[in-house]
Amino acid sequence: MMKRLILSILLLSAGLSAFAQERKITFYVGTQDKGANSSITRCELNLASGQITLIDTINKSVAPGYVAISPDKRNLYAISSDNKVSAYAIEPDRKLTFLNSQPSEGAGPCHVSVHPTGKMAFVSNYGGGSFSAYNIETGGKLSAAVYKEQYTGTGPHTKRQEKAHAHFATAGPDGKYVYVTDLGSDKVMNYSVDANAGKLTPNAPQPSFSGKPGAGPRHLIIHPSGKRMFLLNELDATVTACSIDKKGVIKAIKTYPTIPADYSGPTNTSAAIHLHPNGKFVYVSNRGHNSITAFRILGNGELEMADQQTKSIATPRDFNIDPTGKYLIVANQASDNLVVYDVDAETGKFTFKHESIAVKLPICVAFL
């Protein structure tokens, strides 16, 4: 009897182990492709092998460059080159069903995000230099815009800062404040938000944070603690570690280069910034230098470079780390493919694993 019990336990353990090894995570890829086959691509990442499989595509949006997934994982939102933002339902089988679209309320939308409550969505319009917010209705459809703001301002970089260029918007983990980067004026706009009422107002203690002139703030990431912000500056290829107080006020701590000081190749612009799921490391991508750089987050909020890799990286406009923290997926805009790196969650270092599937002009990776 005991032998049978032990055998049953061993078989069960083996089965669970095999199940764990075969576990797959779904992710979606946005593209800059405006052609007839322009699609959101659904993929699966095998956590045992690091292999990526292309599952299907949906082409209801034209050049659905940036996509965002709701906190409850039931909806996906995508901006498109025809100046729209679209809502999709994520079905139980992970397929996407188109729900509706709304005008982005500005030219050249480049980013969309969802409030932590799942009740609002935020769109940044790079070309038009404006920001808009939407209520998310029951079921995931988008309302008409409930807030719109046209930014103004310039910076010293005459070619890229000739006017406002809203690039990215996100709420903090507690949902009280929304931050919007304006690459054109070197500012991060700061709002108080009431997601239940669908209202935004400038944050009275700090309506905006001013960065270094000419830096060009592009994307940012907020630590789950809500006390730290890491601001990626596109034009001078730096990342600024910041603190955030209880009133949502941003203060710069220190700024770090994302590429070597002696780099002399093609003009470099930094692109994306992501946090490792364990909250210990920040990763950024560089176009021109064609690299991903890893920083360790120190106890005082400062950063320390942990690693930098370039193998098989070609214009990495976006990348992302899977929710388990095991793999880093690079979206190569220049070579139309995805590349996989292994990540060491203890040191933050990452090593090239393999080049993977072909996707035309991939510029966003979003894990379900």
Main attributes?
5-stranded antiparallel beta sheet; 368 residues; Methylamine Dehydrogenase, Chain H; 1 helix
List the helices and strands and how they pair.
Layout: H1 2-21, E1 24-31, E2 40-46, E3 52-58, E4 67-69, E5 75-80, E6 84-90, E7 96-103, E8 109-114, E9 120-125, E10 130-136, E11 142-150, E12 166-171, E13 177-182, E14 187-194, E15 199-202, E16 208-210, E17 217-222, E18 228-233, E19 238-244, E20 250-257, E21 269-275, E22 281-287, E23 291-297, E24 303-309, E25 316-321, E26 327-332, E27 337-343, E28 350-358, E29 362-367
Antiparallel strand pairs: 1-2, 1-29, 2-3, 4-5, 5-6, 6-7, 8-9, 9-10, 10-11, 12-13, 13-14, 14-15, 14-16, 17-18, 18-19, 19-20, 21-22, 22-23, 23-24, 25-26, 26-27, 27-28
Word description of this protein:
- This protein is mainly β and 368 residues long.
- It has a single domain, classed as YVTN repeat-like/Quinoprotein amine dehydrogenase (Methylamine Dehydrogenase, Chain H, 7 Propeller).
- The protein contains one helix and 29 strands.
- It is globular.
Shape, principal axes of CA atoms: globular
Spatial extent as radius of gyration: 21 Å
> Within the CATH hierarchy, at the fold level, what is the topology?
Methylamine Dehydrogenase, Chain H
CATH 2nd-level architecture = 7 Propeller
Number of β-strand runs: 29
Domain count? 1
Roughly how much helix do the residues carry, as a percent range?
Answer: under 10%
CATH class: Mainly Beta
| CATH fourth-tier homologous superfamily | YVTN repeat-like/Quinoprotein amine dehydrogenase
Question: Structural class from helices and strands?
Answer: mainly beta
* Percent range for β-strand residues: over 45%
Query: What order do the helices and strands follow?
Result: HEEEEEEEEEEEEEEEEEEEEEEEEEEEEE
- Largest beta-sheet details: 5 strands, antiparallel
Round the mean pLDDT to the nearest integer and report it.
Answer: 94
Question: How many H/I helical runs?
Answer: 1
Question: Residue ranges: pLDDT <50 for 5 or more in a row?
Answer: 5-21
Distance between the termini: 44 Å
Pfam family, one: Lactonase
Enzyme class: hydrolase
Keywords: Carbohydrate metabolism, Glucose metabolism, Hydrolase, Signal
GO molecular function: 6-phosphogluconolactonase activity
